[in-house]
Amino acid sequence: MAELLLGKNVTQHINDGIISDVEMLKGKGVNPTLGIIRVGENSSDIAYENGAVKRCEKLGVEYKKYLLPADAATDDVLKVIDEVNNDKNIHGVLLFRPLPKGLDAERIENALDPAKDVDCMTEASIGAVFTGKDRGYPPCTPQACMEILKFYGYDLKGKNVTVIGRSLVVGKPVAMMCMKENATVTICHTKTVNMQEISKKADIVIVAAGHAKTVGADFVSEGQTVIDVGINVDDEGNMCGDVDFAAVEPLVGAITPVPGGVGGVTTSVLLSHVVDAAGKMNP
Predict the structure, then answer these.
(1) Residue 168, Cα to own-chain centre: how many angstroms?
(2) Could you report the per-residue pLDDT of 62-90, keeping only the tens digit for each?
(3) One domain for residues 91 and 192
(4) What are phi and psi of 19, to 5 degrees?
(5) What is the domain extent for residue 251?
């Protein structure tokens, strides 16, 4: 059986640091605060929002919601972005994406103050990830992957990492972050030839395909470490990842479960960014 890389252990480690930092900042009269901007009523957005709110309440981080209807105009959203940019009591912003069709997403995303961009929404922030600069904040989900590997003692130097998925949300940034740790990275996608054989040769496989149970037994080999970023619902209504856990788990050395893996860590990473931003704004 594979070792289960449980997210709850990593989450607790991150949460302990957040609680300590929040206490220190509140002692200085600073209340770290997350601004949550949601346009529309997407169920997955609402679920993540509820999880973030619960985590805020648990860790002592304040939050303020900005909720707009699905038919909001670009100018309506920009007005909210301007409001949070100018509110000194908002230290980080979570804007749910993708935005509804008809909105100028590029204009909206890049209107945010990079200092408050705690989930790598702006081109300035993503540029820092791709150039290896230590400024701003990387996307929370890719950093959650890195936090899990770090917590469980994986040194990426010289390791072969295969990333399945090339989105700007996870695939591309997590590849850059692995390269920064001196891994040799291969990115696979829907047009990759012999993806199974490429995946089998990796030491670590990070799966962000965006489709349930894409990666099966024919993608893996003995001793590999598999990080499953996917969150899907299968035909039986159960949450599952992009990896066919039942088929893959008996074959590999270690794997993150879904649920119970990357997702919970992502939320704590988000709040750690908010707290860090609050500290930088109030040195």
Answers:
(1) 11
(2) 999 999 999 999 999 999 999 999 999 99
(3) no
(4) -60, -45
(5) 140-263
